[in-house]
Amino acid sequence: xxxxxxxxxxxxxxxxxxxxxxxxxxxxxxxxxxxxxxxxxxxxxxxxxxxxxxxxxxxxxxxxxxxxxxxxxxxxxxxxxxxxxxxxxxxxxxxxxxxxxxxxxxxxxxxxxxxxxxxxxxxxxxxxxxxxxxxxxxxxxxxxxxxxxxxx
Length: 152
Ligand code: FES
Fold this sequence. Notes:
iron-sulfur
C-alpha cells in the first residue's frame, strides 16, 4: 500500500505517493525522472547514487524515500545555476575528472560535500572523504585536482 510523501527536490516541492520499500534512488529516477543520479551497486558500495539531503551527502540507494518527509534533496540536476555550471562541474571539465562519466554525478555531489564539510584541507583528507565514490576508469588524481582547485 502506498503512503503519502512530501519533499522538495532541487527547489521544487512534490506531493507524492510511494511504496514504503521504495528507495530514495528509485524515487528520484523512476518517479521524478531525475536520471542524473546513477545506480551502480544499489547496496552502498559505489557512491554513484550520492545526493544531498538538507545539505549532507548520502547514498540514496541506502535510504528509504519515506524517511525524507519534509526534507530538501539536491541532485546533480539541481547543482547548476541556470546556464552557469557549478564551480565543481567546471573544475571536473577542466581537469578531466572523468572518462566514461557514469560515476561523475555521484563524484561531483561528494566533491561539493567534501569542501562544504571541511574535508578538503589536504590530498589525503580529500582521498579519504572521496573513498566511497568508486571510479572504474581510475580518474582519481584528476578528481582530487578538481576539488583542490575549487577549494583554493
Ligand atoms: Fe548506491 Fe552504489 S548505487 S552506493
